[in-house]
Request: fold
Amino acid sequence: MPQADAKPKIKPTFIVRDGMLVSLGRPAGHIITDAQHENFRLDVEYRFAARPGNCGVLVHASTPRALYKMFPKSIEVQMNHRHAGDFWCIVQDITVPDMVKRRGPKKNWGIIEGKARRILNLTDDSEKPVGHWNAMKIECLADEVKVWVNGDLVNHGSKCTATKGQIALQAEGSEVEFRKLDITPISKLSTDPVATNRPKVKHLIDTHIHLFDPRRPQGIPWPPKSDKVLYKPHLRGDYRRAAKPVGVTAVVIVEASDWPADNRWVLDHVKGDDLFIGLVGQLDLTADDFTKQLDALRRDKRLVGLRLRPSGKWDPKSKKLIAGAKALAERKLSMDVLIGTVSVADCDYLARQVPSLTIIADHALSYRANGKTPSDAWIAGAKRLAENPNVYCKISGLYERSVKQPAPKDLSHYKAMLDILYGAFGPKRLIYGSNWPVTERSGSYASYVTLVDSYFAPKGQDVRELYYWKNAARAYRLPIK
Reply:
């Protein structure tokens, strides 16, 4: 703390409280190790307990007060809220791919005051909301520095001008709590075992996730407050943390709210994020002004379809419903159908009435998997529905449709049902979807991908490419090749 030079009895910036190391933020400064470290992993769990702000971890620290007569010569791994994982060069330097894009014009680069010292991270919103704990992993090996935040790889630099030094935590204005600071020697950098153990596909499109925020003043219609797992914010950053390490490359959001305004809310929430490429919205197809609402919503090119999820009494043969379905088809939009609220027979009727409409039947026809062969009636319904060439089946939601809860992770529990659907729809009309965050009731996102891949992988790479992206691109008319 430079201010302590003139005021030796100044209040300390770092304290221990309730078993945690706490940076009070003021006076500005840092706390630093006595020992030097090289070839190590630093695991940090931290949170901004009250309000978002700034902080950072300094690695390979050496000469004191090298910048602004305060911070030591080092590489800073940023913790600034919503920018966690940025690199800041403090009289040391490091190189990353796409340097001009991430650091700005080369003529401005530098490692001292007044120069372009910031190198942007690879992701947005990898942090959790204020008040929640974040997990940061920093690995330093030789001249490389690699950083993860909540499972997201957020930065990876090489050609660092330092390979060892002290480690410091900054105090830069905001209170930060640290409940874990573990240093482990390493001999190699980590890779993501989930992403690397499965054979890669060209694209992995998740066609079924929900995003919502119960903290909004207006609240949300779903899920209910009684749902202890789901009733909390599930936003784009949360999804990224769960899915990106598995290799997801694109996402179609399915709107779970039946409030028309929430279609716009979720589109605004993911605006500018290229991971989220499509929305299956919700509108009342039987409303008198349906086509007016639809045309207003489809001005946003990310709209790829609507979901049919009626509540209460409804007439599957309603002339207004059929007209609404035809309006979708005319506009080259698809229809997701939530089987369960809509019967397989009613879905089949709709498919035959509007053969030009692409229909995606959600959640493996909502079969309640129990490890046994489905009934003859269910099999007959699935086969009849599959006779319609305009109908696809989404293999999603297996966890929550399981009779046994938490849902088993063993393929044998679902295989009989999957065999029926694969035989009926064939490899060209089955689509991948997770139904995140509902999957959280039974397991991780990675465990769900592992489960479905254990079924499709033995069928060959061509089938995996169809299931994970080609069929979705065709059904939703996605701009992916």
